[in-house]
Amino acid sequence: MAQSGAExxxxxxxxxxxxxxxxxxxxxxxxxxxxxxxRGRIGLAMLALLTSSAATLVLxxxxxxxxxxxxxxxxxxxxxxxxxxxxxxxxxxxxxTATRYxxxxxxxxxxxxxxxxxxxxxxxxxxxxxxxxxxxxxxLSRLSADTTLIQTVVGSSxxxxxxxxxxxxxxxxxxxxxxxxxTTLVILAVVLVVIPLxxxxxxxxxxxxxxxxxxxxxxxxxxxxxxxxxxxxxFTREDYERTRxxxxxxxxFAIAVRRTYARAGMTAAAIFGIFGCIxxxxxxxxxxxxxxxxxxxxxxxxxISVGQLVQFIFYALLVAGGVGAISETWxxxxxxxxxxxxxxxxxxxxxxxxxxxxxxxxxxxxHGAVRFENVEFRYPTRPDSAALNxxxxxxxxxxxxxxVGPSGAGKSTVFQLLLRFYAAQQGxxxxxxxxxxxxxxxxxxxxxxxxxxxxxIFSGSIADNIxxxxxxxxxxxxxxxxxxxxxxxxxxxxxxxxxxxxxxRGVTLSGGQRQRLAIARAMxxxxxxxxxxxxxxxxxxENERLVQHGxxxxxxGRTTLVIAHRLATIQxxxxxxxxxxxxxxxxxxxxALVAKGGLYARLASLQFSGARGE
Length: 614
What we know:
This protein is an alpha/beta fold. It folds into two domains: 9-348, ABC transporter type 1, transmembrane domain (ABC transporter transmembrane region fold); 355-447 and 561-614, P-loop containing nucleotide triphosphate hydrolases (Rossmann fold, 3-Layer(aba) Sandwich). It has helices spanning 5-12, 32-35, 39-69, 76-125, 128-131, 136-178, 180-227, 229-234, 238-291, 306-348, 411-418, 441-446, 462-466, 475-484, 488-491, 511-525, 541-555, 590-596, 598-613; strands spanning 370-377, 388-395, 400-404, 426-431, 434-435, 448-451, 529-533, 559-563, 575-580, 583-588. Strands 6-7-8-3-9-10 form a six-stranded mixed beta sheet, with helices on both faces. A four-stranded antiparallel beta sheet has the order 2-1-4-5, covered by helices on one side. The two termini are 50 Å apart.
C-alpha cells in the first residue's frame, strides 16, 4: 500500500529517536527471543552454575572443621575426612565450572550468530529511504562492534554476574548461620558501598553509549572513504581524509578514556569499600575470639572459635568478591544494554514497502505491460519538491520506450517506483493490469531486469556474477547469456574463463566489460520488463558498439524502458517520452520531436551540434 509523507518521515527520523531513551538495562530484554530456542542449554548452564557455587560455599565449612579439629594424632581420622571432603568439593567445582563455561560460551556464540543474521536480514528489507539518513558504515559497526559487546555479556559476563549473585546470596545466608552480629555489621557496610556504585553505573552507561556512537562514526567514515578511494586519490585529498579519520578516532578514544575512568573509579570504590568493611568486621571478630564470652560487654561480648572466624571471613570474602565482580560486570551489562538498544533500533525500523496481507498475484506468464496513472511522488527527504507530478504513461508489452529530459525531470524516479523502492503518494502504477501496491514487492521485482549506468559487480567469479539474477541457471545458459551480451570474447581470453575471480566491485575489469557482464546478468534473468539506465553513457566508441549489440539482443521480445542522456543511443526507438519537472511534456519518434521544436529539439540541437563541432 502507498504510504503517506508522515509515515515516510517517521522512518526517516527513526534513528534519531534513540537519544531520548532511558538508561536502564531494559534494552537487554530484546535478547530474550534469541535465547528462548536454547532453553535446554541455558537450563544446563544454570544447573552447572548452581553446582559450582554450592561447591565453592562448602569449602569454608570444610576449612572451619580442619581448624577447629586441630592436627593432633587423636583427630587424624576426622582430619582425613575433611581433606577428602575438600578434594571432592574441588572436583565437583572443577567439573561444574567447565560445564558452565562450555554451555555459556556456546549460547553466546549461537545467540550472536542468530542476532547478526536477524539484523542483516531485516536491513536487506529496508528501502533506500532508510539509507538516505543512515550511513552503511554505521550499520556495519552495529553488526560487528555492537554484537561483539553483546557476545561478551551473553557468553561470559551474564554468567559471571549470575554466579556472583548466587555466591553473594549463599555466602550472606551462611554468614548469618555462622554469626548474626558480624553479618549485621557487614550488611550495614555494604549498603554504604552500593549507593556510589549505582551512581557510577549510570555514568558508565551514558559514556558507553557515546563510545559506541563514536565507533560507528569512525566505521562510517572509513567505509565512505575506502569506497571512494580512487576519487580521493585523484583529487589528492588523502591528507584531508586522514585528518578527518584521525579526528573521528581521537573523539572515540577520548570517550573511551572517560568510560575507562568511570569503570576504574567504580571498581576501585567497590573493592576498597567492600574489603575495608571486611577488614573492620574481621577486626571485630578477632576481638570476639580474643575476649570470648567473658570479655567486656558490647560489641565483643560473644564467643566464637577461630574456625568460625576463618569461615566467616571466607564467606565475607566470597560476598565481597561477588559484589566486586557484579560491579565489574555491571559496566559490561551497561555497555551491552547500549549496544542492544542500537541493534533493536535497526530491528524495529519498519520497512517503507511491505507486502500486503493478501497480495494479488501477477499474471503467469507475465507480459510486461506498464501503466502510470496520474502519479505523484515526493522523496521523504525532500517533501516540498515533487519528483513526479501528475505523471501518466502507458507502455505496451514488448514496446521499447525512452525517457529523456533534463536532470531532475523524474526519469530515475520512474524506475525507483517500478522497482517498489518507494511508494507513490498519489495515483496508480500497474504491471500487467495489477496495481503493484497490491502485489508482493518481491514478485514485482522478479518480473524486472535492470542494467544500471554503473553496474554492481560482486567479488565472486564471473559465472557467479552472471548467475546472480537466476542462481539455478546451468553453465550452458550462463555461457549463452555471455555470448548474447558480447561478453564471451573477453571472458574466454581470461586464464580461468568463467571461473575467474573478480576483485571488489569488479575493479579488475574495464567499464565496458562490467557493463557487458551486467547485460548478461539481465539476459539470464529473462524478465518480461527491462530497465536500462543509460547503459552506454560512460563508454568509448568501441565498447559502446559492443554493449549496444548486447543491448539489442537483450531488448528483443521484452518491454523496455530506457533512461537516455545521450540522444544518439535512442534515435532508432519508435517512442521517446520527454519529461520535465515530473511530467510528460511530449512524446513521439526522434524525427517527429525534432520537427516539433520544444524541449527535445533543444536538447538534440545542443548534443548533435556539439558532436559536429568536435
